[in-house]
Amino acid sequence: MRTQVVIIGGGPSGLLLSQLLLKAGVETIVLERKTREYVLARIRAGILEQGMVNLLREADVADRLDREGFVHDGTLIASDNDTFRIDFAKSVGVPVVVYGQTEVTRDLYNAREATGGETVFEADDVCLHDVKSDAPYVTFRKDGRDQRIDCDYIAGCDGFHGVSRETIPKDVRQEFEKVYPFGWLGVLSETPPVDDELIYANSERGFALCSMRNANLSRYYVQCPLTDRVEDWSDDAFWEELKRRIPEKAADTLITGPTIEKSIAPLRSFVTEPMQWGRLFLCGDAAHIVPPTGAKGLNTAASDVHYLYHALKDHYLDNSDKGIETYSTRALARVWKAERFSWWMTNLLHRFPEQSGFDRRMQQADLAFLRDNEAAQQAMAENYVGLPY
Ligand code: APR
Ligand code: PHB
User: Fold this and answer.
1) Which helix (H) or strand (E) holds 22?
2) Which of 12, 221, 292, 327 is catalytic?
3) Is the pLDDT of residue 44 over 90?
4) Active-site entry in 99, 137, 153, 200
5) What is the DSSP secondary structure assignment for residue 2, as one 8-state letter?
6) Is the distance from the beta carbon of residue 51 to the nearest atom of ligand 1 less than 6 Å?
7) What sign has the CA pseudo-torsion 163, 167, 169, 174?
8) Tally of helices (H runs) and strands (E runs) in the chain
9) Centroid of chain to Cα 321
C-alpha cells in the first residue's frame, strides 16, 4: 500500500487531522490498535476551546456540536464556602463549549465513514521504519497478515502509550515529567447538573469538580489517594464525599442517582521534545499530557493538529516546507503554556499530602487574589478559553 500520510492512532488527534487533510485533498490511512467500539467507550473530558470548535467546523464535523453543545460564558471557583465566578464573556469575550470528547470522536468516525477515508482497526504491532529517510514506511499486522504502507510522512497520534514517541532515539528525546500524589475519581450519572456552570472546588477534604455533558447527564470528580480502588467507592460514598467538598448551596440542591460510569485517573504533567524527528510528527497525548484541572488535554491536541495540518497542506498545496520545519517549535510554544496553566490550576485547587501550613496559606492567598483582581481573572479566563494558535 502507499499513501501520502500514515496516521497512527484513531483517537481525536488522528481523526481530526485525517478529516482536515482529506478536505484539502491529502491522502491518509489511519491505523488504530483497538476497535471503533472500544475507542468510543472511553469517557474523557468535555470542554472545548473556541479554537477547537473552529477547527471542527473547518473539518465539517461540527453540525451536532453546534446543535447540542452548551455555550458557557463563565465558571465558578469555590474555596471552602466562598464561591466566585470567572466571567469569560466579560474578561475576554470568548466562551467555551461543553461537549464530550467521546461525542467529538463519534462525529469524526461518522464523517470519516461518510467520506470514505481509510481506517484500519485492530492494527497490531505497528512499527515505524526509515523515519529519517525520504522514504519512510509503516508495517503492521491485520488478521494475522503482515502489511506495509509506504508514505511521505507519519503522524504519531497514538496517545501516551503509543509506539511513535519511542521511535525517536533516546539521545534525541528529552522528557519532562511531574507525577502528582493523587488521582481523580470520576462518575457519570443520568441526573441534572447541580449548576448551569462548572464548579471547581478547593476544600479542606480535597478538590472536587462538578461538570456535565447535557441537561440530564452530569460528570463529577473528587480528588482521591492513588491507592484507592474504584471497587471500594460505593455510589453513596461518592455522593457523600462530593457533598462535603462543594459549597453548601450546591450540596443542598445536588440530585444524586445511580452512576453509569466510575473510574480513577492519575494526574500527570509530561512533555517530550522535540515533537518532530525526520518525517515523523508527534501530535496530542503522544507528545504531552496535562492534569485535567484546566481542561486542556483535548484542546492542546487540537492545536497540534492545527499546526501539523497547515504544515502538511502548505507542503502539498503550496510547495512550502516552512510549516514542516517549524512544527515542533510552534507546537511546543503553545504546549508549554497549557502545561503551565494546568499545573497552576492543579496546585491552586488540590490538597497535597505534604502540604505545610505555609503552602496552604499561599493557596488561599492565590485564590483570594484571583477573586479580587480583575487582571488575574482576565489571565485565568484567557488561558481557560484557550490561547491563540
Ligand atoms: N498502534 C495503533 N494505534 C495505537 C497504538 C499503536 N501502537 N497505541 C495507541 N493507539 C491508539 C489508541 O488506541 C487510541 O485510540 O491511539 C489512539 C490515541 O488516542 P488518545 O489517547 O485519545 O490520544 P489523542 O488522540 O492524542 O487525544 C488526546 O485524549 O487522552 C485524551 O486528554 C487527552 O483529551 C486528550 C485527547
Ligand atoms: C469533564 O467534564 O470531564 C471535565 C471538565 C473540566 C475539567 C476536566 C474534566 O477541567
Assistant:
1) helix 12-23
2) 292
3) no
4) 200
5) B
6) no
7) negative
8) 13, 20
9) 28
The ligand that comes nearest to the alpha carbon of residue 10 is 1
Query: Which three cell numbers mark 196?
Result: 448551569
The grid coordinates of residue 53 equal 470548535
Q: Are strands 96-98 and 70-72 parallel, antiparallel or unpaired?
A: antiparallel
Q: Enter the C-alpha cell of residue 199.
A: 464548579
Dihedral sign, CA of 148, 154, 157, 161? positive
Find, among 165, 153, 112, 194, the residue nearest to 3 by Cα. Answer: 153
Query: How far apart, in Å, are the Cα atoms of 284 and each of 51, 196, 211, 249?
Result: 15, 30, 23, 38
Contact criterion met (CB below 8 Å) for 290 and 269: yes
In ligand 1, the atom with minimum distance to the C-alpha of 286 is 26
Provide the sign of the torsion angle of the four alpha carbons 7, 335, 272, 45, taken in this order: negative
Cell numbers that stand for 304 in this block = 497540534
Sign, CA dihedral 160-165-166-171, equals negative
**DSSP one-letter code for 254:** P
Rounded to whole angstroms, how far apart are CA atoms 39 and 230?
21
The residue type of 73 is D
Note the pLDDT tens digit of each residue in 264-306: 999 999 999 999 999 999 999 999 999 999 999 999 999 999 9
CA-nearest of 96, 112, 154, 95 to 12 is 112
The answer, yes or no, to whether residue 80 has pLDDT greater than 80, is: no
Q: If we measure between CA atoms, which residue out of 5, 322, 333, 311 comes closest to residue 155?
A: 5
Closest CA to 222 of 170, 184, 267: 184
